[in-house]
Amino acid sequence: MAKQLQLRGGTTAEHSTFTGALREVTVDTDKDTLVVHDGATAGGFPIAKASDVVSDVSTTTALGLIKIEDGTEQTVVANAVSTTASRTYGVQLNSSNQAVVNVPWVDTDTDTDTTYSTASATTSGLIKLEDGTEQTVAANTVTTTASRTYGVQLNATGQAVVNVPWADTDTDTDTVFSTSTDHSWTGSQRGTVIVDNDGSFDMDLGNNFKSTPTGAVTLTFTNITNGQSGFILLVNSGQTISAHANTKVDANLLATVTAAGTYLIGYFSDGTNVYLTNSAIYA
For the chain: N or C, fewer Cβ within 10 A? Predict the structure, then answer.
């Protein structure tokens, strides 16, 4: 005769406060299922019955299994959960029991031209550059100056151009000025008179000088320039006039201009020395 094994058992409520011995098995008489114990956890660990294991395909009323429509891992982060009205769509199963969501939407973009046409005054489009060379000069600052905004147009080959109307008012076609060529002067060319009362004349300041000494002076030139010439208007009240070693005078010049009076002294430089000539005293 076969032997009978009978395990200890109790209700679900009784199990909730019962701690069985390690590896002890008891019976939950409410659920008709076995409970495995570990000697420490009250209530133990109920074992699922075959009827508890879900193996059917899910429906709208029953929990069940589904397949995913595509097994490729999705690396794009999901959008944040929202409560936007009319934007929640139910999950369904297709004929292969794969989960799908039908999202109804209408394409309101009626432009079927997927390649832009050439731009026009009324339609956005494509243009070409007139010159593909990179422009390294920084753009001028944007301004709102009146009558200085000009429209972009396309030339016959679809290149963007801007027509900026301006008139060249510079009628001088000689773009290279050279001292080795002849030039015609239509305007006055003259320098100002440099006043220097100490008898020292800087040729870099000009050609013509005026001097009214208040004491003895030595006629001296600085920055002596080859080929420079000019005049000195000397208004002398009787001060002694002498000459620097590089200032060349005749035997009578210094004695003449030392006497009180007004004199016009001409000079010419060869780059090393300056040669003087004088007028007689002016009445």
Answer: N
